[in-house]
Design a protein that fits this description.
Blueprint (H helix, E strand, L loop, with lengths): L22 H8 L4 E2 L5 H4 L4 E2 L3 E5 L6 H11 L4 E5 L6 H10 L4 H6 L1 E4 L4 H6 L12 E5 L3 H6 L6 H22 L3 E5 L1 E3 L9 H4 E3 L3 H6 L2 E7 L4 E8 L6 E8 L2 E3 L19
Parallel strand pairs: 3-7, 3-10, 4-5, 4-6, 6-7
Antiparallel strand pairs: 1-2, 8-9, 10-11, 11-12, 12-13
Length: about 280
């Protein structure tokens, strides 16, 4: 018979309560979800823009346009932005240029962006917990989400720990986005698929860093690649909601834009320009 210290019996474990809802109720709730628009054909890939409660990934090779997409979104969104710059590539000058060319106040654009440049994975993971209560971001960006993890956890002997810590960080981002209705964008690098052949599509030859941890954690994943004459191609490669498809866009003094013949009069944020 098991003995209890000091004769104190353990407390009876409370039953776990699990809430359930119908698919119809979830569907009705989905109709009220707001979306942050990029102002480019990328929006067509993901139902009109980035959901206010989701984490979306842009990945691709160096210079593909991942950070440019982040700079554009950080400039045009109304409200504060938390920009976690893991690669030290944030450019205030670029923000100012985008704002000026979009007829926005460059000083106001710079003042609303709160930049964090973590030096370790621990600092990166703690960034969300250190957002000042008065900031209440309308957008969170993590530029280079796997960079510090790859630098700290080197070798196959550290692979399991790296993937575990990365998985916790991604879960933290998803929970924050869901609880605070804050659209969140992460960018990621690629590596060459050792088993790839020239006959495979480019997104199967250049794989996103982070492996299955990212593949299973992020619902909408967009591969960005360079094309001719300065055009970029955004390809939705993985989503549980939308089919695989791709759209072109360009990078200009205004940030990311539709191709000249595709420009329209669409607004940048559904429902008045701000995620509430």
């Amino acid at each position: 018979m098991e003995k209890w210290r000091c004769g104190v019996l353990p407390k009876k474990k409370e039953p776990v309560k699990v809430e359930m809802t119908t698919a119809w109720e979830l569907y009705q709730k989905e109709q009220n979800v707001k979306r942050l628009k990029t102002g480019t054909p990328i929006d067509e890939l993901i139902g009109g823009g980035i959901r206010e409660d989701e984490v979306i990934e842009f990945y691709g090779e160096f210079g593909a346009g991942k950070s440019q997409a982040c700079f554009s979104l950080a400039t045009i969104v109304e409200g504060n932005v938390v920009y976690i710059d893991c690669e030290y590539t944030f450019s205030p000058q670029r923000i100012k240029q985008i704002a000026q060319n979009r007829s926005l106040n460059p000083d106001e654009a710079l003042q609303k962006i709160y930049v964090c440049q973590p030096q370790t994975t621990e600092e990166q993971a703690c960034a969300l917990n250190n957002i000042p209560p008065t900031v209440k971001p309308s957008l969170i960006i993590v530029d280079g989400v796997t960079t510090l993890f790859r630098a700290e956890y080197i070798g196959r002997e550290n692979l399991a720990k790296k993937q575990g810590e990365l998985r916790k960080h991604l879960s933290q981002l998803k929970e924050y986005a869901r609880n605070n209705k804050t659209p969140t964008v992460i960018t990621n690098q690629v590596y060459q698929n050792p088993d790839g052949t020239p006959f495979l599509p480019l997104d199967l030859r250049e794989l996103a860093c982070g492996g299955h941890t990212l593949y299973h954690s992020i619902n909408n994943r967009i591969f960005i690649r360079k094309a001719q004459h300065g055009t970029r191609i955004a390809c939705l490669v993985d989503s549980s909601e939308y089919p695989r498809q791709e759209r072109p866009f360009i990078i200009s003094a205004k940030g990311i834009e539709p191709l000249p013949e595709q420009k329209g009069e669409k607004g940048l944020m559904e429902g008045g320009g701000k995620v509430e």
